[in-house]
Amino acid sequence: MNRRDMAEIQFREALRAAMVEEMERDEDVFLMGEEVAEYNGAYKVSEGMLDQFGPKRVIDTPISENGFSGLGIGAAMMGLRPIVEFMTWNFTFVAFDQIVSNAAKMRYMSGGQLKVPIVFRGGNGAAGQLAATHNNSTEAFYTNVPGLKVIAPSNPDDAKGLLKAAIRDDDPVLFMESELMFGMKGEVSDDEDYILPIGKARVAREGDDVTFVAHSKSYWLAMEAAEELAKQGYEATVIDPRTLRPFDTETVLESVKKTNRLVIIDECSPYGGIASEVAFRIQQQAFDHLDAPIARVTAKDTPAPYAKNLIEAWMPTVDEAIAAAKKVMYVD
Predict the structure, then answer these.
(1) Which residues, in sequence order, are bridge partners of residue 32?
(2) Which of 30, 43, 154 minimizes the C-alpha distance to 88?
(3) Which pLDDT value is given to residue 1?
(4) Against a cut of 0.70, is the pTM above it?
């Protein structure tokens, strides 16, 4: 990418740019959710969009996730392309039946007669002292459901390119944005046709000693661990899968065949999480290339605590990632 085509903007601004460009390109695209219009969004992602597109395309909804999710699914079945914003993915449990029973399965159950081109998006994952009900990393719940595509970007540029791809996709796409990353700045393409492919991982750093796989804000934890390991003489490859379903297994396999060691960092609970699925795939397809058991660094297997010291202990840490890497390298 030519740097003349790049501008440094916030993660929330990259998401807004993607939605605005797609709404300018296609009048069937519209946004709805709690406080997306008059309040400009709970995290100001939709700031200014009501003024630009009007109340028929930027729509405030009641606090009724099950209701407006169903409305969006119906609109998608009739040919529109809704973007449904949740304040947080924690609230999608109220809309769980609409997402997993209708959005995910309508195309299959109608024999391909009905498409559901809808994007569900919003803040995801732990974000400090928000207590157990507001600190869930929900991606493992939804990647379990055939029919859904699940994306969790780690930086503003990926957020723009992948959200534009999601809006143009003919299947339901769940777009999970870390609540702690909305203010993150990074270079983002200005190209209106800037699209990143769904289902393709990014190799962010290359090394020969160990492979890290980490998505969303865990990616930054992996990069910090890799930099610290480099100071100690060990070089890590860091892979950001970007899309969790479909998952780019091949890119991880290629790296593991080179490093022979794998550590997966994932904010989900360890039981049935993303890390569990990735570990299974790699041991199934690259067992003979592994020189050590695959290691996982995850949230602890309890509800998220409220106390500051406990939530910090509950989250995966850089020190844990470094310790896991050294364990699979048989050092220390």
Answers:
(1) 59, 84
(2) 43
(3) 47
(4) yes
